[in-house]
Design brief:
- The chain has 749 residues and is an alpha/beta fold.
- The chain has five domains: 108 residues, Rossmann fold (3-Layer(aba) Sandwich), CATH 3.40.50; 226 residues, D-amino Acid Aminotransferase, Chain A, domain 1 (2-Layer Sandwich); 168 residues, Carbamoyl Phosphate Synthetase, Chain A, domain 4 (Orthogonal Bundle), CATH 1.10.1030; 121 residues, 3-Layer(aba) Sandwich (Rossmann fold); 52 residues.
- Helix content is 42%, strand content 16%.
- The strands form four sheets. It has a seven-stranded antiparallel sheet. A seven-stranded mixed sheet has the order 17-18-21-20-19-22-23, sandwiched between helices.
- Strand 19, helix 20 and strand 20 form a beta-alpha-beta unit.
- The chain is globular.
- The termini are far apart.
- 49% of the residues are buried.
Length: 749
């Protein structure tokens, strides 16, 4: 029996993944189930998503693959007779369902206790009218706001506040139905959409252009409360935090400003009565030191997953323990970095960068704003802002080589690209700096804080230093060392020095060889994690060029395997590869192998601090994988469980004599390379569709016409195929018949 006397708990999952919601709730739910299992509590999970870790065998005691609706949850409650229910680990879906079960009296009917934050406290955060009134009691500022239930009231509220106004749906995930309206016409259009998501719509003063700051806050039953990590959006308010590049810890705030917001956070969360973990978001004006509390999320979120991985503080795990009645001093080893009682200290920086896949939708606007369009995100760790930005922009997997060195990015109207954010705005900033725009000018157009712009300018300025050299081997040690500190990859360095063509694999290796000769190698740093019985075994690692020693020792171990993860979620690649990676890790450990994971997705279970023996929260690039292999000297690398990104590295690793376990890289290449695959089918006598490698739209159109002609002549070909010999014998000589075939084929080709 647990500390609280609870024997059985229902955990509500988040259901199917959707845009605005990726794998963060699989992570938080899995953490909660792990915490419950430690207490000997029987767990019942409701989640219809088959691709998640939490629905795998052995995570929960029972899994119901059912919709997360009041009807089905009640039916499960009838059957299972649980003592309690957790609502905060399945996103908005679970929260809304749980609130309805509570208000309808269903939970009381069956004697099911809501664990952790009370439903009353949840409703304070979800109902905007209640939220504002609650914070007014303690004189904490919120945006001037009216909660309305119909379109006409929304129009009336907008005129009272004054245009422009912000529209938001209550009880919605990812900023659905939100946006800024300049006039009544825009308001009516957006409000109609907002009411489709929620019965309550919020009309608020527009704070567009202010900084957006957020904190994760933890509080226990004894009222011990603190902020775990501070985060600052690179984009100003007006861009949803899930759409923005986010940096932790905050960079541009003074200590006085940071202390003010921390104190307000603790004051607010205590007053709301939240027990467990939550997220609080601010609009902040540094010029006037004015602020507004935008919202409080009384549940785990994407920001929670990010903050957990950024700090080494497993928020979902701790929140579940608190929900069971523990206090923070009872979790982890007091007086050590492994205690949950105080916030971890960080001596590094992280950046979160979203990934969009909007090009897969015809006609969809590439502009970003208050509604979430991103389908995933990455987290980059390092010692300088320049380093983490360059690494992070490579990690998003959209063909970029970093902040600079991207030859194919152009803008028709650069001023507009800076002023009106799109998925490519950060590269518009790079292009503007390359064209000589001043930091002040870019700030004026974009409202991005000058602190960030000055750091980005350092990267652009250094491209000129690299371009002054003509040969890789001529680069001086100090120049190469500074380039790596600023986050330049070997690829970027080769591009700026020699500007070679093609995939540049040979040039990459030449830069690498020069670095190794000069002793310019990345150092491995460890992030402390809490609530761990064996902290020395939870090696949560990243690489940086800060010139210091490794935090851990290395020794050859042929009983180790490196497993490459899948990177950022994208349309067509989601939680399934996290599931594959986790199972590969667990199998390796069962077989007695030390498991080494490389992945940079903060939303995944595979990047949890205790899933493997060593976790490198770093790039899945050719360069970085070789760095890890040089240090670990493993038996081999598994590339087959992480999707396309690891697969694409197979042949490159093979050419460097790295053992790839499982399917041979040669066989992978035969399957992935269309020319080789086609030749193999021809050799085997297996039919295949007509295809051709094409490089222009005109070539595509020409190929389409050939296919049309082929289709038009198919019947003629079929007749000739069936009756050709007969026709030749009866009417033609063999030569004439053969020529007939040649004429038809020429016509088709």
């Amino acid at each position: 029996m647990s500390k609280s006397g609870i024997k059985k708990v229902i955990v509500l999952g988040s259901g199917a993944l959707k845009i605005g919601q990726a794998g963060e709730f699989d992570y938080s739910g899995s953490q909660a189930l792990k915490a419950l299992k430690e207490e000997g509590i029987s767990t019942v999970l409701l989640n219809p998503n088959i691709a998640t870790i939490q629905t795998s065998e052995g995570v929960a005691d029972k899994v119901y693959f059912l919709p997360i609706t009041p009807y089905f949850v009640e039916e499960v409650i009838k059957k299972e007779q649980p003592d309690g229910i957790l609502l905060a680990f399945g996103g908005q879906t679970a929260l809304n369902c749980g609130t309805e079960l509570y208000t309808s009296g269903t939970l009381a009917k069956y004697g099911v206790k809501v664990l952790g934050t009370s439903v009353e406290a949840i409703m304070y955060t979800e109902d905007r009218d209640l939220f504002v009134k609650k914070l007014d009691e303690i004189a904490v500022k919120t945006p001037v706001s009216h909660a309305v239930g119909n379109l006409e009231d929304a129009v009336k509220a907008a005129y009272e506040i004054g245009f422009p106004v912000m529209i938001r749906s209550a009880y919605a995930l990812g900023g659905m139905g939100s946006g800024i309206c300049k006039d009544e016409a825009e308001l009516r259009t957006l409000a109609e959409s907002a009411f489709a998501y929620s019965p309550q719509v919020l009309v608020e003063e527009s704070l567009k252009g202010w900084k957006e700051i957020e904190f994760e806050v933890i509080r226990d039953k004894n009222d011990h409360c603190f902020t775990v990590v501070s985060m600052e959006n690179v984009d100003p308010l007006g861009v949803h935090t899930g759409e923005s590049i986010v940096v932790a810890p905050t960079c541009s705030l003074t200590d006085k400003e940071l202390d003010l917001l921390k104190e307000l956070s603790i004051k607010t969360i205590r007053h709301l009565g939240i027990v467990g973990e939550c997220n609080i978001q601010y609009a902040f004006n540094s010029d006037t030191c004015d602020y507004r509390v935008i919202e409080v999320n009384a549940r785990l979120s994407r920001s929670s997953a990010l903050a957990s991985k950024a700090s080494g503080y497993p928020l979902a795990f701790v929140a579940a323990k608190l929900a069971l009645g523990y206090s923070l001093d009872e979790i982890g080893e007091m007086g050590t970095p492994n205690s949950a009682y105080k916030a971890p200290e960080v001596d590094y920086m992280i950046v979160k960068i979203p990934r969009w896949d909007l090009t897969k939708f015809v006609g969809v606007s590439r502009q970003i704003g208050s509604s979430m369009k991103s389908v995933g995100e990455i987290m980059s760790i390092g010692k300088s802002f320049e380093e983490i930005m360059q690494k992070g922009l490579r990690m998003i997997g959209q063909g970029m080589h970093g902040f600079v060195g991207n030859n194919d990015v152009e803008f028709d109207n650069l001023d507009d690209a800076l002023a009106n954010p799109t998925v490519l705005r950060i590269f518009a900033v790079a292009k503007a700096l390359e064209k000589g725009y001043t930091v002040d000018r870019i700030h004026e157009l974009s409202k991005i804080t000058p602190w960030f712009l000055e750091k980005l300018k350092n990267i652009v300025d250094y491209t000129k230093v690299l371009s002054a050299y003509d040969k890789i081997e001529d680069l001086p040690e100090d120049v190469l060392k500074e380039a790596k500190r600023l986050g330049f990859s070997d690829f970027q360095i080769a591009r700026y020095v020699e500007n070679p063509e093609g995939n540049m694999e040979k040039e990459n290796i030449r830069v690498r060889n020069l670095r190794k000769k000069l002793g310019i190698l990345p150092s491995v740093k460890r992030i402390n994690t809490i609530a761990s019985e064996h902290p020395e075994l939870t090696n949560y690692l990243y690489m940086t060029y800060d010139g210091s020693q490794h935090d851990i020792s290395y020794y050859p171990n042929d009983k180790s395997v490196v497993i490459l993860g899948s990177g950022a979620y994208r349309i067509g690649s989601s939680v399934e590869f996290d599931w594959c990676s986790v199972n590969a890790i667990q199998t390796a450990r069962k077989l007695g192998y030390k498991s080494i994971m490389i992945n940079y997705n903060p939303e995944t279970v595979s990047t949890d601090y205790d899933m493997c023996d060593r976790l490198y929260f770093d790039e899945l690039s050719f360069e970085r994988v070789l760095d890890v292999i040089d240090l670990e000297q493993p038996r081999g690398v598994i590339v087959s469980v992480g999707g396309q990104i690891p697969n694409n590295l197979a042949m490159k690793l093979y050419r460097q004599s790295v053992p790839v376990l499982g399917t041979s890289p040669v066989s992978i290449d035969r399957a992935e390379n269309r020319n080789k695959f086609s030749a193999m089918l021809d050799q085997l006598g297996i039919d295949q569709p007509a295809w051709q490698e094409l490089t222009s739209l005109e070539d595509v159109k020409g190929f389409v016409e050939k296919i049309k002609m082929l289709a038009a002549n198919r019947e003629k070909c079929d007749i000739m195929g069936k009756n050709g010999r007969k026709l030749i014998l009866q009417k033609f000589t063999r030569e004439v018949g053969t020529q007939k075939y040649v004429d038809v084929i020429k016509n088709i080709i």
